[in-house]
Amino acid sequence: MAKKKKITAKRVFLLCSLLLIFVVGVIVVYTYVMDYYKKYYACPTLGIDYNKYPVMGIDISSHQGDIDWKVLSDNHISFVFIKATEGRDFVDKRFAHNQKKAKENNIVMGAYLFYKFNKSGEEQAKNFIKTVKLSDSDMPPVVDFELSYGNRFSRLSHDKIQNQLLRCLFELEKHYKCKPIIYTNVDTYNKYIKGSFDEYPLWLCKLCTEPKMKTWTFWQYTHSGVVAGIEGNVDMNIFNGSYSDFVNYIYNSRKIKKQ
């Protein structure tokens, strides 16, 4: 008959410790996820004053799937930001199609680069430049620079992160001859953008309440928008000004003097 292994006090202590660590880890992750959800999603529906902000738009990626662009253009969508690239080599599989359809349906389009904190800013810009052609009637390129679930941790210092972002912006500005737009959320704006990149147009994600600062050019006010032509929810945005202001912004944004 085989001998039964003795369960020693040391083994019991080890198992209890591992169980405790696991439980604490689950609690920490759950708390973080719930805080994030409450902060960015579980807020009352925001009422937008469309007399004050009449120029409405959306931002999309391949996650939106097939879009009925004709229906979309008939529902007061004036502009659309389309995901083009991410990091050094990723290209959104629906970018070219979405860009073509936006132009065919006379929706002013812009393209954005999802910035990865732990990658070279210059290489990310080159990936975007290789992928995206913009005309004078398009919006400037956008750098989506945000702390998020998959983009929060980096071994780089604060200064190096800002330096890499500057390199990315510089490459885009040099190629497209216009100031890129910086998209970011409030946390990232306060940590990295505020006071250091004020010369760049700001597209701010501020859910639940209107931004207090007046310097934003675009404002993303919800991730839960419902628009005819798109199945499921979509991010909603507005421009800070009238229709004529919007036209003037696009026209003037392309007029950077060559050095």
Count the strands?
9
Count of alpha and pi helical runs: 7
Query: What series of H and E elements makes up the topology?
Result: HEHEEHEHEHEHEEEH
| Sheet/helix structural class | alpha/beta
Q: Could you tell me how far the N terminus lies from the C terminus, measured between alpha carbons in angstroms?
A: 89 Å
How much of the residues is beta strand, in percent?
15-25%
> What characteristic shape results from the CA principal axes?
globular
The major pleated sheet works out as: 8 strands, mixed, barrel
Spatial order of the strands forming the largest sheet: 1-2-4-5-6-7-8-9
From the alpha carbons, calculate the radius of gyration and give it in angstroms: 22 Å
Helix proportion: 25-40%
Uncertain segments: none
How confident is the prediction overall: mean pLDDT? Answer: 88
Description:
The termini are far apart. With 259 residues, the chain is of the alpha/beta class. The mean pLDDT is 88. The longest helix is centred in the first third of the chain and has 32 residues, at 9-40. The chain has helices at residues 9-40, 69-73, 95-104, 121-131, 158-176, 186-193, 243-253, and strands at residues 56-60, 79-86, 90-91, 108-114, 142-144, 181-185, 202-205, 218-225, 234-239. Strand 4, helix 4 and strand 5 form a beta-alpha-beta unit. Helix content is 37%, strand content 19%. Helix 4 (121-131) packs parallel to helix 5. The protein has an eight-stranded mixed β-barrel with strand order 1-2-4-5-6-7-8-9.
Task: Provide tags for this entry.
alpha/beta; globular
